[in-house]
Automatic annotation (TrEMBL):
Residues 281-521 form the Terpene synthase metal-binding domain. This is Tricyclene synthase Oc15, chloroplastic. Residues 64-220 form the Terpene synthase N-terminal domain. Pfam families: Terpene_synth, Terpene_synth_C. The keyword Lyase applies.
């Protein structure tokens, strides 16, 4: 069953999975989360388009003045970064990190790379014996983030004679936070970083349990839940902005610049959301397909989050949102209204990419099929105009693969036959919609041209698989947590328990968490490898952003809402707070 599959159920609780005993031949029951989107249950998404954010007024009404002040502050921070970059002080590392955390790193890529290249050369001859835990951890993370390999052996200086991290580090809370952050960039087999993550996490949790009510405790909780490498800085910078002003002499300027950048972003994003809403209304599907979701702000949130690091990518965000929209529509058709025979014909029609292949289907399916083909063909033509090649064959194949995966789940649901956990995961990676989104994004960013030395789709297969696996398993973890406590919900956890009789739900969940952690390590290594393709840097970061938003997708409260994600999106889009 395609219900609750990754992208198309972002802000809704996934409490109903494929249950073999509930199958009805030819027709499938709607998922609870989908029903709530139609109004039959409580709406879990509370963000609406409309209106200009108050803080965007200066940007909108006085664009020239705003632009001058904005560029002046960008230059002020640039000069500070160049100045600090001349030395090897801790403050220079803190500055680079702060620039990243307030979402401004794209403005200072050249200066940051120059600075880190110097530090990398120096690091090759250093033992770090006299460096603090905080400085070593921060330097390690920054170097790895920017493609410089630094050995995890640098952390051996913080171990005792017994080979374990020294317990007296428990008083160095800021150092432990940085150690935990550094461990998020580990590769497979780097056991010292596994130890670092476990050690720092334990001591930081102990610190929080000590009932210390201060800003440091708040920061610790935030770092543990959302470490920098696994979050989207421009989306989550709200948390860091309240801390940055007190940092040295440049903190106030950096905070002011970040707030101006926020206002500029709101103006850009609201304009794009208006374009998406206009396109959706003109498409007319909302009026004809009454049982599918009508939520342009939610669809746009995906594209905004994935491509949030570059304001100039407006055409790409709008085009990508159109693709996300059809993932939702097709998922609803498979989940809610289509019979198995109809879904089979629909899938064949998408595979053929032929307007005439849907003559035997209901009108709503014909409309969706036609709109999918027209929209995707338009995207292919726009890519050709912009980059000189039309990747329509690859785009078509991604949609065919998605519908094929949905149909596999529909047939399993109808037959009542459960797959193995591995079979579920392999097909489920495709039915998340990740491949559709990232294949479209790959070409929208101008990649995949046939001239020598460029990156092509086969080069990113492992990257796509890793992101899809993380999304699929996090979805299943969230569904299992919110669904049946005995694990019988058709998720990976449920099926893994069936494959391994005698295993408890807790053990199966632990296994799933371990796979997700392992996939992140593989992603880290794969991104490191792909750094050889300089042209792919935007795509690599966008792919990571897709994986990064997953934890926020499943951070439910007791009312099955997503308050943290909702707060971030409201702040980023409209400067609203709940």
């Amino acid at each position: 069953m395609a219900s609750c599959n990754g992208m198309s159920h972002l802000f809704l609780p996934c409490s109903l999975k494929t249950r073999p005993g509930f199958a009805k031949i030819g027709k499938r029951e709607p998922a609870v989360g989908v029903v709530s989107a139609y109004g039959a249950g409580k709406q879990k998404w509370n963000i609406k388009a409309g209106g200009v954010a108050p803080t965007s007024e200066a940007c909108r009404l006085h664009p020239d003045k705003f632009k001058i002040e904005y560029e002046q502050k960008i230059e002020e921070i640039r000069q500070v970064l160049k100045s600090k970059g001349e030395d090897e002080s801790s403050e220079s590392l803190v500055l680079v990190d702060a620039i990243q955390r307030v979402g401004l790193s794209s403005y200072y890529e050249e200066e940051t790379q120059t600075f880190l290249q110097k530090r990398f050369v120096t690091s090759c001859a250093s033992t770090y014996r006299y460096y603090s835990l905080r400085d070593v951890s921060l330097l390690f993370r920054l170097l790895r983030q920017h493609g410089h390999y630094i050995s995890p052996d640098v952390f051996n200086n913080f171990k005792g004679k017994d080979g374990r991290f020294r317990r007296n580090l428990s008083q160095d809370i800021r150092g432990l936070m940085e150690l935990y952050e550094a461990a998020q960039l580990s590769f497979q087999g780097e056991y010292i970083l596994d130890e670092a993550a476990s050690f720092s996490s334990q001591l930081l949790h102990e610190y929080c349990l000590a009932d210390v009510d201060d800003n440091l405790s708040r920061m610790v909780i935030g770092r543990l839940r959302y470490p920098y490498h696994k979050t989207i800085a421009r989306l989550t910078r709200k948390d860091f902005l309240q801390d940055v002003e007190g940092i040295n002499g440049w903190g106030k300027t950096l905070r002011e610049l970040a707030l101006m950048d926020l206002r500029k972003g709101q103006s850009v994003y609201q304009g794009e959301l208006a374009q998406v809403s206009k396109w959706w209304n003109e498409l007319g599907l909302a009026q004809k397909l009454k049982l599918v979701r009508n939520q342009p702000p939610k669809w746009y949130t995906w594209s905004m989050s994935i491509l949030i690091d570059d304001f100039s990518l407006s055409p790409q965000r709008v085009a990508l949102t159109k693709s996300v929209t059809f993932i939702y529509l097709i998922d609803d058709i498979f989940d809610v209204v289509g019979t198995l025979d109809e879904l089979t014909i629909f899938t064949e029609a998408v595979n053929k990419w032929d307007y005439a292949a849907v003559d035997m289907l209901p009108d709503y399916m014909k409309m969706c099929h036609r709109a999918l083909l027209e929209t995707t063909n338009d995207i292919g033509r726009e890519i050709y105009k912009r980059h000189g090649h039309n990747p329509i064959d690859s785009l078509k194949n991604s949609w065919a693969d998605l519908c094929n995966a949905y149909l596999v789940e529909a047939k399993r649901f109808a037959s009542g036959v459960s797959p193995t956990a591995d079979m579920h995961l392999e097909n489920g990676k495709v039915s998340t919609g990740v491949y559709v989104v990232l294949v479209h994004l790959f070409f929208l960013l101008g990649l995949g041209r046939t001239n020598g030395g460029t990156i092509n789709l086969p080069d990113i297969s492992q990257l796509l698989s890793g992101v899809a696996t993380i999304l699929r398993l996090c979805n299943d973890l969230g569904g299992a947590k919110d669904g049946n406590e005995d694990g019988t919900d058709g998720s990976y956890i449920d099926l893994y328990m069936k494959d391994h009789p005698g295993l408890s739900v807790a053990q199966a969940r632990e296994r799933t968490v371990d796979i997700i952690a392992s996939q992140w390590k593989s992603l880290n290594k794969e991104c490191f490898r792909l750094n050889q393709y300089f042209s792919a840097s935007s795509f690599i970061n966008a792919s990571l952003n897709l994986a990064r938003i997953v934890p926020l997708m499943y951070d439910y409260d007791d009312d099955q809402r997503l308050p943290v994600l909702e707060e971030y999106v409201k702040f980023t889009l409209f400067n609203q707070t709940t």
